[in-house]
Amino acid sequence: METVVIVVHLIFVFALLALVLLQTPESGGAGLTSGSFRSARSSSRTLVRLTSACAVAFFTTSLLLGILGGITKKKSSTILEQTVVDEENSAKSSVLDKLKKMQDDLKDRE
């Protein structure tokens, strides 16, 4: 789900960038449009509306990504917690036993 939202978000990013660059200099863009297909006023209004819609979609996907990131964020252990766990294990246990215990602890947290 998060990957799909990221892809849609990137599409809106590039669309917003292109729309801003296509606007005429009077409206703040780089003026890359040609006036051949419509009148300048009609073209400017259309580009401003498309830019506004794309900006709203961009902010919506940004908020959605923030919400999804907060929901899926898992509590990670700190270095201090890991040190306490290591000290509790005996020195005789092997590295593989320690790794297995850490893996089991992570599964329990989920």
Keywords:
0% strand, 72% helix, mainly alpha, 110 residues, 2 domains
Can you give a write-up of this model?
- The protein is mostly helical and 110 residues long.
- The protein folds into two domains: 2-72, no CATH class; 79-109.
- Helices cover 72% and strands 0% of the residues.
- It is built from four helices and no strands.
- It has helices spanning 2-22, 40-72, 79-88, 95-109.
- Helix 1 (2-22) runs antiparallel to helix 2 (40-72).
- The longest helix is centred in the middle third of the chain and has 33 residues, at 40-72.
- It is rod-shaped.
Element-level helix/strand string: HHHH
The helix tally amounts to 4
Biggest beta sheet summary: none
Distance between the termini: 19 Å
Count of DSSP E strands? 0
How much helical structure, as a percent, in the residues? over 70%
As a percent range, the share of strand residues is: under 5%
Mean pLDDT: 76
Outline: rod-shaped
Q: How many structural domains?
A: 2
Q: Given the helix and strand composition, which structural class is it?
A: mainly alpha
Structure at a glance:
With 110 residues, this protein is an all-alpha fold. It is built from four helices and no strands.
How is this fold's topology laid out?
Blueprint: H1 2-22, H2 40-72, H3 79-88, H4 95-109
Helix pairs in contact: 1-2
